[in-house]
Design a protein that fits this description.
The protein is mainly α. It contains 21 helices and no strands. The protein has three domains: 234 residues; 34 residues, no CATH class; 228 residues, no CATH class. Helix content is 80%, strand content 0%.
């Protein structure tokens, strides 16, 4: 009975997907071409960068092969952690916050069957993107190691139970958290974890031991990187099982590979059964708690934390302060939003805080310069993706309530300006300390420290203006799902322009430093080039901010409420 219900539901979803693919032909050719070019470029970049790294390590001989194999353990450990976090977020949104769940609960279906459907949804939604991300990287690995086509089949066979284990752990954590912890306790725990994380970063900053200076990359890798990979080889972790299974495939030890696959499959089936058993007891009560429970603490006007903090900004008009308080409360009450910020920027902060322990500050100037700009690019790309995801749909999410803002004693441009300054300030408070921490750990030169932080400041304002301005230019007030709003033409255009903006600015700033460390230009020529690059970045950013906000303002003025 359960299998027939699940089959019918998935059959209906496949029909919906088939109809959406047919309707995709109605979209503009520009959108389709842009999307496919982005996909091809993303896959090409995801393949080329690891391929060059693997070729470099492979040129070291036996030591390079050892490092490549150890990287596999570390890679799958990172993938395991990201999949667990992703399933926690997806399970909460799909199993507790969607209207489809309410419809399923009105049908004569058991609660465990409903959660099983959502569990399969979580596996599918969380795994397909990671699998697409995994294939180019491991294709580069297979090409360097000269592996056959059987490696790709083995990768898929091993990845399926691995993804099920990650989904089971994430869904169980979400189910138990929703059932037994209140929203206030979850926020307090999140703040506690954040404080502990910041304390750990400070401790690493103070007590981190610099590696011995080395002018040889081989010695640096062997003495500073390899010893830190040991934690990723825990024998009872799923990332160890999938890595060992793939290694046995490569060494043609097929019997042992089957044993590792059976170990993954057995644990996946066991944890899936545990998820179903727990859902019978805790799923429906947790859903009732998230849907109908009210906040017992009632805040009088002016007594909330946001009101107390924003109320002190006397230089801001009262109407603007009210809009800021509203946006802050909406953001804080949605764990889907701040949890993603915490995860992505938290991982970057962990990496930046450990740069000193890895000894990157003692490598050759060429590699230090390269690592510095890679850190700058990764921070800005993370900021760009989250900006498009959360800033672009903000005006559209006002939805059917937008007429309230239209009747409020504020001008339309005030709404645009408020969202621009609030989001820019938040982005600046997150990105600037990260880049400062990265440069401090790498011990970069003073000009690079100053200019990289200047670029981050300009990018925070420019990326925010792009997303806010295009969000006003391409609003969608009929849609309540931010993912659907972002997936439209406006969201696609915003992402493309953000990527182009980052590429132009990082290239303009990084090119003079690259020419200097490779001794292609003198110091005097470098000084002139860096001044020109700085002026270009400032002018280009100012033009981006002005044009984006002007276009958004004119679109809002033409909007009929």
């Amino acid at each position: 009975m359960a299998l027939s219900i699940i089959f019918n539901i998935w059959n209906a979803r496949l029909n919906i997907l088939r109809n959406k693919l047919k309707n995709a032909r109605r979209h503009s050719r520009l959108k389709i071409i842009v999307v496919w070019l982005m996909v091809i470029g993303l896959f090409a970049g995801t393949f080329y960068v690891p391929f060059r790294a693997f070729v470099f390590l492979n040129s070291m001989g036996h030591f390079g092969l050892v490092i490549i194999d150890r990287l596999m353990y570390l890679f799958f450990m990172g993938l395991f952690m990201m999949l667990v976090f992703s399933n926690c977020i997806i399970c909460y949104s799909t199993a507790y916050k969607t209207s489809e769940t309410q419809f399923f609960l009105s049908l004569p279906i058991r609660y465990s069957q409903i959660f099983l459907i959502k569990f399969i949804d979580s596996i599918t939604l969380s795994s397909w993107m990671f699998l697409c991300f995994l294939m180019p990287i491991l294709s580069a690995y297979a090409l360097v190691r000269e592996l056959g086509a059987g490696f790709y089949l083995a990768l898929i066979l091993f990845f399926i139970p691995f993804a099920v284990i990650c989904a089971a752990i994430g869904c169980m954590a979400t189910m138990l958290t929703v059932r037994f912890l209140t929203a206030s306790i979850c926020r307090m725990l999140s703040l506690l974890v954040l404080c502990l994380f910041l304390a750990g970063c400070v401790w690493l900053l103070i007590t981190g031991k610099a590696a011995a200076r080395s002018e040889n990359e081989v010695i640096f890798l062997l003495t500073n990187l390899v010893p830190h990979f040991g934690f990723s080889q825990f024998a009872f972790a799923p990332n160890f099982w999938i890595s060992e299974g793939l290694f046995k495939i490569m060494s043609r030890s097929y019997k042992q590979a089957v044993l590792w696959w059976l170990l993954l499959t057995a644990n996946a089936l066991f944890l899936s059964q545990i998820v179903i058993i727990l859902s019978r007891k805790f799923y429906y009560s947790g859903w009732l708690k998230t849907t109908f429970s009210a906040n017992k603490k009632i805040y009088l006007p002016g007594e909330g934390l946001a009101e107390k903090l924003i109320g002190k900004l006397t230089f801001v008009r009262p109407c603007m302060r009210s809009l800021i308080i509203k946006d802050i409360k909406i953001f804080w009450r949605d764990p889907m939003q701040w949890s993603q910020f915490a995860i992505f920027f938290g991982l970057l902060a962990i990496y930046f805080a450990n740069i000193r322990n890895l000894g990157y500050q003692n490598v050759l100037p060429f590699w230090k310069n390269l690592i510095s700009f890679l850190n700058l690019t990764s921070t800005n790309l993370t900021l760009a993706s989250l900006s498009v995801r959360f800033m672009f749909p903000q005006l559209s999410l006002e939805g059917k309530r937008f007429w309230i803002l239209g009747l409020a004693p504020i001008e339309k441009k005030d709404l645009l300006i408020e969202k621009f300054w609030l989001n820019s300030t938040v982005a600046l408070c997150i990105s600037l300390p990260l880049i400062g921490l990265s440069n401090l750990m790498l011990k970069v030169s003073v000009p690079l420290m100053f200019l990289s932080m200047l670029v981050v400041v300009m990018m925070c304002f420019s990326l925010t203006s792009l997303c806010i301005g295009l969000g006003a230019l391409f609003p969608n007030f009929k849609e309540d799902n931010p993912a659907q709003i972002v997936s439209g033409f406006g969201g696609t255009l915003a992402l493309v322009l953000c990527l182009v903006y980052i590429a132009v600015n990082v290239t303009a700033l990084g090119l003079p430093f690259h020419l200097l460390v490779t001794a292609q230009i003198s110091q005097s020529v470098f000084n002139r080039l860096i001044v020109l690059s700085s002026v270009f970045v400032c002018v280009f950013s100012a033009a981006t901010i002005f044009i984006s906000m002007l276009a958004g303002y004119r679109a809002l003025e033409r909007l009929e409420i």
